[in-house]
Amino acid sequence: MTDKDALVLFMPSGKRGRFPVGMPVLEAARQLGVYVESVCGGRATCGRCQVSVQEGNFAKHKIVSANDHLSPIGPKEQRYAEVRDLPDGRRLSCSAQILGDLVIDVPQDTVINAQVVRKDSDGRVIERNAAVHMCYVEVEEPDMHKPLGDLDRLKTAITNDWKYENLDVDFHLISQVQSILRKGEWKVTAAIYKDEENGDRPRIIALYPGLKNEAYGIACDIGSTTIAMHLSSLLSGRTVASAGTSNPQIRFGEDLMSRVSYVMMNPDGREGMTNAVREALNGLIDKVCADGGISRQDILDAVFVGNPIMHHLFLGIDPTELGGAPFALAVSGAVHLKSSEVGLPMNAGTRVYMLPCIAGHVGADAAAATLTEGPHRQDEMMLLVDIGTNAEIVLGNRRRVVAASSPTGPAFEGAEISSGQRAAPGAIERVRIDPVTLEPRYRVIGIEPWSDEPGFAEAAADIRVTGICGSGIIEVVAEMFLAGIISEDGVVDGTLAARSPRTLQTGRTFSYLLQDGEPRITVTQNDVRAIQLAKAALYAGVKLLMDKQGIDHVDRIGLAGAFGTFIDPMYAMVLGLIPDCPLDKVKAVGNAAGTGARMALLNRGYRREIEETVSKIEKIETALESKFQEHFVFAMALPNKVDTFPELAKVVTLPERKATSDDGGEGGGRRRRRNRE
Amino acid sequence: MTDKDALVLFMPSGKRGRFPVGMPVLEAARQLGVYVESVCGGRATCGRCQVSVQEGNFAKHKIVSANDHLSPIGPKEQRYAEVRDLPDGRRLSCSAQILGDLVIDVPQDTVINAQVVRKDSDGRVIERNAAVHMCYVEVEEPDMHKPLGDLDRLKTAITNDWKYENLDVDFHLISQVQSILRKGEWKVTAAIYKDEENGDRPRIIALYPGLKNEAYGIACDIGSTTIAMHLSSLLSGRTVASAGTSNPQIRFGEDLMSRVSYVMMNPDGREGMTNAVREALNGLIDKVCADGGISRQDILDAVFVGNPIMHHLFLGIDPTELGGAPFALAVSGAVHLKSSEVGLPMNAGTRVYMLPCIAGHVGADAAAATLTEGPHRQDEMMLLVDIGTNAEIVLGNRRRVVAASSPTGPAFEGAEISSGQRAAPGAIERVRIDPVTLEPRYRVIGIEPWSDEPGFAEAAADIRVTGICGSGIIEVVAEMFLAGIISEDGVVDGTLAARSPRTLQTGRTFSYLLQDGEPRITVTQNDVRAIQLAKAALYAGVKLLMDKQGIDHVDRIGLAGAFGTFIDPMYAMVLGLIPDCPLDKVKAVGNAAGTGARMALLNRGYRREIEETVSKIEKIETALESKFQEHFVFAMALPNKVDTFPELAKVVTLPERKATSDDGGEGGGRRRRRNRE
């Protein structure tokens, strides 16, 4: 490196270095570890290595950058621009040479196939370092003097041009190498699969005549209720299509444990459920391929996540062991396989990667969500909760991460609730109760106005109001508490029956009438109890993890999954479902599991990151912790018998804490103000 | 190491070292790299690690060795001896501790399963270092506090006990690990596959509940005419069963080139031939399993060799390219695959290894023969010839090895010969001609006496004498030459018709009458020409290689294959089929290819050895060498126009060299004496 070397800064990575004048930009990027895609290996034919120059005086970096600090467009680049249409300002970094100081912009969305529609699942830009790498090579023709086989000369070419040593090849290609090489007139593109740096030898898994300028992967979250799949370009990183479907295993059992029971009671149960989920996946693959306008053959890599039972059933493993202590996983580590081994025919060389499971009830989906939200990458103590029949709970930061699951049961999904139902048109999803009149108003899925707004009745005539969904039940119980209809112990106050016709006596307990019509929708004492049990289980699990971490509050909360997307964090906190936290630090993280799968698809570095993280996560088995029961009992109260919610109190006035029988105190006033609508 | 350490010498390896008193013998062997099998990992249950003590004063080694220099038999060893019957004098090296200086004998034939019959293919003892290693482990039971999966705990146990790091597992085992671990009550035996030291990660390819004390492999030479298979124990190294069959591809074409033509002319030709050979292999597998009393499931590794066309057809590769210049192999390097990928269902984890091919017409069979005979391991210059439709020729020593093939055509196999036939009952295989009377006597396959001995006529009435096989045609032409019936130019001397009724005129040329009966068996001028052309091609190829090596004689000659087993080296030399060499240095090496396959099966070190050797072998394409034609013309003469045979002349008096028309000389006398019957 001399003073004559040019200073080059790559954006957005911010990596910089000095390089000799005349060096192609691509080579400089490689030396710095800046990811710039290239399929053709610097022959100016694939167009994947496009960059642009940011012109100007970047005083902070001491760089004056100008377009003419790159070599002029040469004949090869010119030909590419004419044939394939190079956008204004874009240069091929394999051809453009460094002549002076530069700020180089590496676009994250180099569109080569114009028909590709941008449809990113969450707009997140994932740095690419896929496990599958497309490598164009020109292979020596056969020569009687050097009788190396076709495959052997192909390997030599790849080793020379792309530095993959000691290559192996998928067996299905052995009988095809001959004809592909000849069809491509000794110019071919090999798909090289190399996941772990210190793992198996790099392998040729697909081979195409000529330049093959695209390869795709799928990332998929197999949820017990829904399955979501994204199709992404392994070269540009962009999501080309997304699709979802309900998990057809539902016909064998609504929740996880009923599916395990089905396996235990039916000789073909495991096989039936494995086939069902694989069939659904094949349907989704067809759909994303049709949407993306590509062939299944072009999918070369796939990442799947799911909870442990979905994970096992997808792989064809009997999940019975997960149905009882010690909840033994058949396999917890990451799994590598070929898509053909799990009945998903794509390319014969297509690989599948499954993220590791954290524990018997904390699956690869929780691992993927952890990868996405990255508690292990941050200083703040983050709580990550995925609420389902079992809540998967991860709590930690850069220093330490702990995880557990808690048996919340299906109440949050509307099951075990008298008027509960799935989140579908006709379900009450939002509820407010006037603390004076005790009259409710609510909002129904599929109906725009609230129940007390004009137009509601007309709409409700079309879409019948049929029940309460998960987020609705959270809100109505929380509002009943805030309105004084239920006590902090969760008892529906029968004395209110005198004040409002909404409080009904049913046997020895009381209910709250939400809709007096067909059907009649009430919240019964049993409903309240079911929610209390569920939220107490979740909260007790969280508290155990907080104990392990030695903390009394968390810095931020991520609520994963569909349920997390729809519940109002404030009401969740009023119920004491989650611990106190500034409300602006509580966010729904959507399908964090699906995003984590996509990260692992596009960058094998994330695979290593989550494997290492999972191996370090401390797993807490709630059933074995003596304090769980104590936390659970305290958490039966609303919001909690002992824990305070100072952050929540800043936005909503909680009913004054009633004296417990122990402290002999007297119940305080029931009136409360809400600071927040 | 202190003076108190004991000196231990292992035989037959001769490796020695000092070890602390108290160390188990097995551990000492491991530290020295002495191969002692062990499946149970030192638990005194598998019995594989048996050794014995050689007692006495070994002055040369300064060792006084005695049985009581081993610790007394302890309870575990005692239990093994009672339950499994430990032979007298044998000790389990995992339990026996070193107490003093010792000479330890490692038996090469530790028989554990008594029903196994010794039936070694060639008695050769092959040091074992198989690619498949049986590892017994005791796995931790599942624990809610440490929720590692079953497979993950299994891997941990193997890593701890057997030092295999970063283990992978075959996908088919993932769904079985659970039940196998429970069936074995957390004690299992894993078959670990690790071929190349720097190759892929070690893999679990099979898993058995409890102690699995045996594993088998097959070694197979796929010849164009016959297929030979050996079943060997991967643990003891012994050959348990052998079987052979004719190659059913014969129905598509007798010789290699007619099979290639069949592929070129029939759309399903390649598939038909691939299926045919795989079917035959499956039949052989059934046969060796039945003979060995084992299940196909117990075969975990397999090695196949064959000439390039057999190699390609077995793998499902179109061999058409091998039918014409530049004779391009689809793959020349060694190939790893699973047996299920080539339609040979055994264990789901069974691996297949194919040796590398040397060149377009010098196959994996020649590589295997090279491995067996080891020209690259010796100082002497060795010629290794496998005679078939194409002769595969390897010539070299420790410093340099060269190889070529020569298009001998099918004459040596009895084709293109008027009375030629396969080596089968009724075929003349040995011939002597009285130089005075010109009367022949001969020996026929299936008939014990010679034709001039008592009992021949009776036997010949049962087994009709129907033709001449390859070795017979070599002998009769050589004897005709020695008797003066044909000249050194190969012309049948018509002037002898006056002297003997055995010389017949047929048109413009003459024949020699071998059997005047039904059928009439003659050697025609065309027959002699066919043999001349074939042997000239072979010899010219050999000479080219000798030119490359810069030598005028070879030190030893190995004749591989069935043909090499049956021809008499002296007659081959009289014909000038092979170069001059002391006759005791010419030997039939039998199925050297099959033996090489068995070596590669039992010791992965031999795989690396032959891969490296093949990569270094210089390949000579005879068609491209200008001197080939010249060598060929000289080699048309008997034994050769220009080359002398001084070693041959020591045992047989060759006819005096006739002056050629060039030198204007006159034909010398034709009488000659034979020094050898």
Automatic annotation (TrEMBL), chains A, B:
Pfam families linked: Fer2, RACo_C_ter, RACo_linker, Raco_middle
Top-level taxon of the source organism: Bacteria
Transmembrane segments: none
Family matches, as Gene3D superfamilies: 3.10.20.30, 3.10.20.880, Domain of unknown function (DUF4445)
Classification via InterPro entries: 2Fe-2S_ferredoxin-like_sf, 2Fe-2S_ferredoxin-type, Beta-grasp_dom_sf, Corrinoid_activation_enz, Raco-like_middle, Raco-like_middle_sf, RACo_C, RACo_linker
PROSITE patterns noted in UniProt: 2FE2S_FER_2
Ranges for region Disordered: 656-677
GO MF term set: iron-sulfur cluster binding
Domain (2Fe-2S ferredoxin-type) ranges: 5-110
Record protein name field: Drug:proton antiporter
Organism: Rhizobium tubonense
Lineage per the UniProt record: Bacteria, Pseudomonadati, Pseudomonadota, Alphaproteobacteria, Hyphomicrobiales
